[in-house]
Design goal:
Helices cover 40% and strands 18% of the residues. By secondary structure, it is of the alpha/beta class. The structure holds iron/sulfur cluster.
Amino acid sequence: MPTAMEIYKLLPRKNCGECKFPTCLAFAMQLANQKVALEACPYVTPEAKAILEESGAPPVKLVTFGWSGSPAKIGDETQLFRHDKTFYHPTVLGVIADDSEGLEKMKAKMQDAKATYYERVGQIIRVDSVAVRHSKGSPEDFIEGAKYASTLIVPVVLMTEDPKLMSEAAGACAQARPLLYRATQENFDAMVQVAKASGFPLVVGGADDMGKLAELADKAKKAGVSDIVLEPKGSSAGRMLEQMTIIRRAAIKKKFRPLGYPTIAVLGSSKEDKMKAALGVMKYCSVVLMDQMPPEFVYPLMTLRQNIFTDPQVPIQVKAGLYSVGEPGPKSPVLLTTNFSLTYFTVRADIEKSKIPVWLLVVNTDGQSVMTAFAAGKLTPESVAALIESEKVKEKSTRNEIVIPGMITRMSGKLNELTDMKVVVGPRESSGLPKMLKSIAA
Ligand code: SF4
């Protein structure tokens, strides 16, 4: 974003106040802080508007594709390293249904992809997208595959380098607003026309040389395609990592607009491709498409993605309160944990293994784990006692007893004093809970 003075120099400097600010400088200062929109000044010239919009645009453009209600959002990243702030838009993972497999297999593959999702730490992680590719199969199967993909209400990628066939397929699944893969040096003009006519985002790629890739992207933009996705053509995992890093670095550090777009990697299913997929999730693929995504591979990949795209400054949390695990009653034990999602779901899963119904008291520690929260003074006898009171724990369980994690045994005395409840020190690791709960219930 330009500074207030840089903006001021581009404003009309009439000081007319129509923007609701007394002077152009005051308006410029608000604009620099992104508190007002440029449109509030009716006198900005088209030239100044173009300059200001260009300089205020994010270093990596936001591109969306897919159904308007639940589109895939890619790009709009501002950081080179996730720990500097956060990464915003998780890598879209998609499975390729190739027309050489025949229409029925393509449909089955797309259905499987859509049905691949898991719940992890309270969040749904899934295969997000399906890609329909024309290779050695019939163009009819490709078109039918595209139509079928559009009924699945997931983001769709259409893959053919034949502009005529792409135009037909794009028309057949227009409501899904697909991502078009791809324009290369060979089909460039015709494919750009398809993207322009449809208004769909376009992958520009096939170039190993970063200069050529930038040239193609710039040419596409000048030809009127604004939503662009870059595909560097790295053959090895090392080269792919290098190219993805060059693109992100050029966009973020140098504000080099021709490379300021999200990226895509199209992979097979070999061991190296799996490694590339993991590398791509970490640095810096916006979309990863693969021939196969079996559960034993995609679950760890999605877990990696979930970790990389979690804001490091905002731990994943659950709401504090008293939770039922199973169907607990007045004789059921009360266990204590914190609201860090990973802790909560691990403890809950270990309790469920015991098949013994339990009241689980979850303290708000701002998403910190037991030891961290205890050391930081966010898990104290006072905070636990207050929650016991507000959640009416003694009315729910008449055992007058609470099991605390083994790592915070030091709070036992004070907690007993504040609540008058018997404090039982549980295991240090939640994996020990089933054994302990069985001994309590016996
Ligand atoms: Fe300046 Fe435009 Fe605001 Fe008038 S409306 S004061 S010209 S910024």
